[in-house]
């Protein structure tokens, strides 16, 4: 045997190095590997090729007199690295130029046959099965890659925050219920039956208190819990980079968070994203019909209110806002040829999103308009419409007439439905959406405005005087970070004046007495010298998913819940022992009848 290996950081008492690390430069060396049998191929009566896999890759081992080893058995194998014979080199495999010969095999553990193949074929296996056997699913290259990208991203974020003098502080998991907006998970108290802790929907209150406490710059990669319906980009439990800074304006916060985002992108992709642009919430809605605009594609909404200012067409005459979406043949090859069922589907979608209807217009040869409403439009209106929308033959125009917010939202959804590329496609387009409204919509129960972000956002100084007279028109010093149409996170400059906090609470229907009773612990400290402060939080699951090219955050979380909130592996949530409930003073009602 010639030469010994430079000891690798991966060497242990059982192995000299990782399976995927063997290269032609190792030829002639003796190595010991550990891993799982990925594949066994017989070669004559006494010889077998065994592919041995660990997280770093697979390597081919030529073994004589192999007995009973099957896929997923755990083995240790010692052998000599040799160049693969001519004609058998596998250029697709990093270890494909070499193989291990003169092998001695030790079985470390036998294995039952797995319920699905431990390779890319398992992508097509029912997700419930993948999650039931998640430990096998994670053995696969895709999950190994994703979890390692995740770890790199977390580490890069920590590095970037620490380089900016942020201090990592851990905050409690058991806390009182807070008014942040999401439904909370409650934990019954055994010592005080009938009382509950809430699990943090975010460390919001704690981080603001840390600013009062003079920490100056706080961060934490924090676990947050929200009892909300699960979707591709939402889990009950999720992780976020949570940060807060004292003596700052919005631009200080955005700059600090940008550094963390850039570091994460560099760690995951080896590329530095360009400086992140900013757009106001109003412009984002107006141009893209969304507060999380996907800037990877155009198809901006076009304002047509002026075009139809004097129209006689009834559906347009009284509308406050008319907007159009131009679908060209490059984006949507069937645009002008769209059949009835496609157009009906667009119309249904528009109605589902709150529009009274959708006007479609196909632009034919010579710019002739084909539409059920064409006959109601004057020549001047047709010409202005074509001009404003820069329409050409082959385009499909989709128009909505309604309140401004409805025209934006409905066409924003259609824009995404029609034009949005899959997550792994196109460049990474980050954007800060700034100046969010302080309040959005009205709470169905209280009839009071609801916070746009949460109740601790500072109203925009230019709008404060309208806080009581016209609250819905007030902007907040609040901002979101959006990447390729996904909301990564949000933040704001906070209220640091207790009286301003009360004014905002009053708008939300929380009286001064209520506020003292429920959040006195939070309001009280602000009397003792709260610095101006602001912060931000972004979801690392979402960031990692996009950087890993995954459509669903479950693919980048080791042990996620299914869409219905359960865990097929542990069966959680499960009923508990009646004695446990007794101790907590809890008696169960019969489950509600299923509708
Ligand atoms: N607490 C907020 C959230 O979790 C973020 C922030 O305002 O800093 O969404």
Question: How would you sum up this structure in a few lines?
Answer:
The chain has an 8-stranded mixed sheet, sandwiched between helices. Strands 3-2-1-4-5 form a 5-stranded antiparallel sheet, with no helix packed on it. Strands 12-13-16-14-15 form a 5-stranded antiparallel sheet, with helices on one face.
Relative helix content? 25-40%
What is the global morphology?
globular
Largest sheet: 8 strands, mixed
Number of helices: 14
Q: How much β-strand is present in the residues?
A: 15-25%
- Low-confidence blocks of residues: none
* Strand segment tally: 22
Strands side by side in the biggest sheet: 6-9-10-22-21-20-17-11
CATH architecture of the largest domain: 2-Layer Sandwich
Question: What's the domain count?
Answer: 3
Mean pLDDT: 94
CATH superfamily of the largest domain: Bira Bifunctional Protein, Domain 2
CATH class of the largest domain: Alpha Beta
* Rg estimate, integer Å: 30 Å
C-alpha termini separation? 73 Å
The CATH topology name of the largest domain reads BirA Bifunctional Protein, domain 2
- Structural class by secondary-structure content: alpha+beta
Bound small molecules, by name, code or SMILES, are: aspartic acid
